[in-house]
Amino acid sequence: MSAAADRVALVTGGARGIGEGIAWRLAEAGHPVVLADVLPQVAETAARLAAAGHPARAVTMDVSNDAQVAALPRALGDWWERLGVVVNNAGISPKAPDGLPRPVAAMPAEEWRRVLEVNLTGAFLVSRACIPPLRARGWGRIVMITSQAARTRATIAGAHYAAAKSGLMGLARSLAGELGPDGITVNCVAPGRIATPMAEGAAAGVNDRMLRAIPVGRLGTPRDVAEAVAFLASDGASYLNGATLDVGGGSFMP
Ligand code: NDP
């Protein structure tokens, strides 16, 4: 059995978009994959993977729901102890009806809380739940999907999203320090503009405008992000810990 075949990969928000792309890439690397998503279509996504010969399972769950996250060991069953890779990808980026993010002055507190709950607290809950099996095997990879909104001033996402994704980077650094001694690394991937249903929800012209600021001359694909995640999940990345990989075609350069 290859090393990857004994390292189950859990991908949150795996029903579609970037999460689905990550699941396919990790499956191609040999990992059994678990897709966890609020969208019921997650079962069909897992079925497509399985039909292509990749061991895959689906869990319908909300990453911000304590009880549902606490039920992960039961949901994964005999795969729980084989968990090796955790990708915190589930996220939301609410917009006003005109497709633009609401400014802080017009942002309902409930919208602020929900974005923090899903994008940040969800990653905390899932990561915390997954520590025991990773620690038990003395090897693990946790990858946070943040955003360039956490790297530079956000223009197409709201302040809640920028705050949550920035918080995710702080969470990753803290976890990287806590878990490094256990053989578990924690890193971030910060995508630029990726063509997914989330990006398609933006106001007219936004993606065209962003395209002009991307040196490689195209929007990113889920596969572009997945390649970076697959590298971080590999043995070759064992000395990257607390790092952030920018996957934006050069639209942001630190
Ligand atoms: P999508 O909206 O296409 O996919 C995200 C998936 O996560 C959806 O299936 C969504 O379900 C699911 N999800 C939402 N909330 C929860 C929850 N509480 N629990 C479990 N699953 C949930 O987004 P992308 O694929 O574009 O984005 C994936 C990640 O990448 C996100 O974290 C996003 O912030 C980040 N990102 C995306 C960029 C882009 O340009 N697309 C750029 C930078 C970062 P539902 O549809 O029901 O909400």
TrEMBL record:
Swiss-Prot/TrEMBL keywords: Oxidoreductase
Gene3D superfamilies given in the database record: NAD(P)-binding Rossmann-like Domain (3.40.50.720)
UniProt keyword Oxidoreductase, yes or no: yes
InterPro entries: NAD(P)-bd_dom_sf, SDR, SDR_fam
Family according to the record: Belongs to the short-chain dehydrogenases/reductases (SDR) family.
Biological source species: Caldovatus sediminis
Gene: fabG
Protein name: 3-oxoacyl-ACP reductase
GO molecular function, a single term: oxidoreductase activity
Domain of life the protein comes from: Bacteria
